[in-house]
Amino acid sequence: MPDPDALLDRIRRAARQEQFLDIVSAAEATRRFRAALDLRPLPAEMVPLAASLGRVVARGVAALADAPPFDRSSVDGFALRAADSAGASEAAPRRFRLNPEVLACGVSPAIEVAPGSATAIATGGVVPRGADAVVMIEQTALEEGPEGPVMLLSRAAAPGQCIAFAGSDIARGEALLRPGTPVTSREIGMLAAAGLAEVPVVRRPRVAVLSTGDELVPPGAPLPPGGIHDSNAAILCAAVAEHGGEPLPLGIFRDDEAVLEAAVRRALEAADLVVMSGGTSKGAGDVSHRILARLDPPGVLVHGVALKPGKPLCLAAVGTRPVAILPGFPTSAVFTFQEFVVPVIRALAGLPAREEAEVAATLAVRTPSELGRTEYVMASLAEAGERLRAFPLGKGSGSVTAFSQADGFFAIPALDQGAEAGAEVGVRLIGTSRPPDLTIIGSHCLGLDAVLEALAAQGIRGRTLAVGSLGGLAAAKRGECDLAGAHLLDPASGTYNAPFLAPGLRLVPGWRRLQGVVHRRGDPRFEGLPGPEAIRRAAADPGLLLVNRNAGSGTRILLDGLLGGARPPGHANQPKSHNAVAAAVAQGRADWGVAIATVAEAYGLGFLPLADEHYDFFLPEARAARPAVQAFLAALQAPGVRARLAALGFAPA
Ligand SMILES: Nc1nc2c(c(=O)[nH]1)N[C@H]1C(S)=C(S)[C@@H](COP(=O)(O)OP(=O)(O)OC[C@H]3O[C@@H](n4cnc5c(N)ncnc54)[C@H](O)[C@@H]3O)O[C@H]1N2
Ligand code: MOO
User: Fold this and answer.
1) If you take atom 4 of ligand 2, which residue's CA is the nearest one?
2) From the record, what ranges are coiled-coil (predicted)?
3) Which CATH class, in words, describes the domain spanning 358-429?
């Protein structure tokens, strides 16, 4: 175990080199940020009842009216004096003179119920003076007497029977809502019943959201080479609204200090809080934090947090107005936003702290971590018997999907270099995701989406975790998934998947897909060659660059077999998906690779067939009876799914 002080010293020195001169812990960053801000809820404003949904009650709201507003009959029947009914029975019914009025809803009674009399009343009718009970119509009969109509009652009534008394539900002046209550449809119903047309709510904090970066284009606009869609602004604005704020999307700004400074100054005038993303690290274009030095004090409070994702986070205040510059990487941006900015928005919005839930899980694979930063690892959860298993998404800070698709995250402490497979981790849950009905781990295939969509239409939620064919097989053996998708070639027998079966596993046939060499159309070095011949020539041509695949993938096993030990240029470039291979070839970063026909076509690439491989599923016997698994097996055979698979280019197994 290294000496922690010496380690911290090393980390500080490294941080200085990185120019994060004052890197602090997450707790210290939070402390400094909060100390500089005024975190009381913003002032109240009155809004119409219908507009109060989702807002936060600013001050106590008292009822303006009783509910019900009068003593009200809760049945259809007759209002009478309970004392007159004493002794009534089927054998000896009591007789009541019927008063000449009928108290429908909304009718104000004119006739007092005198002893020995009764008045017909509807559910919701006003109980008339003199009456102290209502009897149900089913317990009565009517007849015509010598002095007019008579009601015969066959059961004695108790005083107060079938009457809802005025104010018994809501009493005028009663406190209905307390400050800090989020208004839902339930609160709105009570307020309406108590006569309120307007509600005092906390003014929503206005949060200006700016994206910076020359490469950014808004979603919907075509991507130029090197361009990226601005996803941060979209997720941040939506998250602002989710936590009681009002987003002000201010758009995308180039890495131009003067333009950005003017935008930040405008944002500070219009908003209660300013959130930027991008340009906070150390690149030449990273200008955002420099601007803050020129605004009103106290300025930058924190720049650099010993945290992953999120190291370059910059927290500042202009007066007591919070400014956060989030790292540009999407996972880093949204993670630091959730950790540091959401509590501030909620406080200003008058909302209570967010509820946080944590579950215990066993880590499925060894997870390395950078020394010196507390690393938060986004993970998916899968049920494995009694226990939950945590699978790190392994997508890194630049991923857009890591935070959005994770069930939660766990921490690896700053002084650890990783966590071992089998370690117990506490996973803090994100959002409202619950474990899926069906977990499929292994090699991902586009065809799987056709099956899972059919299941989704039946209300069955499937989840796929792409860990490669061998990873899926291992997970199936450990009983951590319902199915493992695989396309594993056994070179000795030339067959797929079956040779890899282990006790307790069953093989479910999936479909066949064509693997082949992908190249740019028209490239004379490939055009027209048979696949295996193309590989032999390409491997011998030093001018051609390969894009390989990751170890453990079925495609890599196939390619390794065909290369026969050769390591052509580009061999070390090993992305994890068919799409990455196709993109590298299409964009000219490589000249050839191996991928499936469906993907080659999607990228407009030339395709030279190599192998008709089988994509099947390993099914742990212990899971076979689960309804979601049975539904999956049925969907695999369904004509609609088969047709979709065929349309995508997948052949029957
Ligand atoms: N030499 C060093 N390089 C980097 C360091 C470092 O310490 N030394 N830190 C790394 C870490 S950690 C992070 S996190 C990132 C964050 O850098 P920036 O905040 O400066 O972000 P950018 O460089 O502007 O962008 C990074 C990345 O994210 C994409 N991006 C930016 N904005 C958006 C957006 N609105 N929507 C979607 N994607 C966005 C951008 O295109 C880049 O790909 O720096 C490391 N580098
Ligand atoms: O801290 Mo950065 O957010 O690792 O990727």
Assistant:
1) 309
2) none
3) mainly beta
